[in-house]
Amino acid sequence: MRRAHDVRVALIARMRAPAYRMALWLLRAWWVVRRPRSRGVRCILRRGDEVVLVRHSYGDRRWMLPGGRVRRSEDPVATARREMQQELGAAGTGWRVIGCLVARRGYRRRSRSEGFRRHSTFYVEAQLVTAALTPRGGELSDARWFRLGALPPDRSDNVDVAAGAGWLPETGRG
């Protein structure tokens, strides 16, 4: 009985990352058809002169600020707390919104290098009480602390957006 349970748990764990990849593909197709507006958060989790960056097991696999989608009628700070507890097992103090990138009105880009910006992103900051991180298996492949000013060169644009806005120190791409 125990062995059957262990096999089932192992199979579910093995299928989680491909399921996230498939869900991302379906979500992108849905966005093309429906062109919805959404809101999300990116969390700047600090401890001294360090910040947490994560790698996802799907989509963009570069180092990025952790985050998630804001549920309907949910406050961005409540979203940040919920997502960080679910994704990293992390609790913080002093949660506050420090900035927001608002969605563009239209879906047309002025140039090919410009992003579509279909949703608004709130940048939320907190101090973590402990250095321990427990990345959610299947969704995150890694989570680490990085010293400010020594961020990895293989990082996502959301890290550079935060740096450009003054929420993280400016650093060159290695």
What do these coordinates show?
This protein is globular. It has a single domain, classed as Nucleoside Triphosphate Pyrophosphohydrolase (Alpha-Beta Complex), CATH 3.90.79.10. It has 3 helices and 6 strands, in the order αβββαβββα. Strands 1, 2, 3, 4, 5 and 6 form a 6-stranded mixed beta sheet that branches. It starts with a helix and ends in a 10-residue tail after the last helix. It is an alpha+beta fold and 174 residues long.
Topology:
Layout: H1 2-34, E1 38-47, E2 50-56, E3 67-69, H2 76-88, E4 92-101, E5 119-128, E6 140-147, H3 157-164
Parallel strand pairs: 1-5
Antiparallel strand pairs: 1-2, 1-3, 2-6, 4-5
Give the key terms.
alpha+beta; 3 helices; 31% helix
CATH class categorisation:
Alpha Beta
H/E element order: HEEEHEEEH
Mean pLDDT: 82
Percent strand: 25-35%
Helical/strand content category: alpha+beta
Helix content: 25-40%
CATH topology: Nucleoside Triphosphate Pyrophosphohydrolase
Radius of gyration: 17 Å
Total beta-strand segments:
6
Q: What overall geometry do the principal axes of the alpha carbons give?
A: globular
Condensed summary:
The chain contains three helices and six strands. By secondary structure, it is an alpha+beta fold. The mean pLDDT is 82.
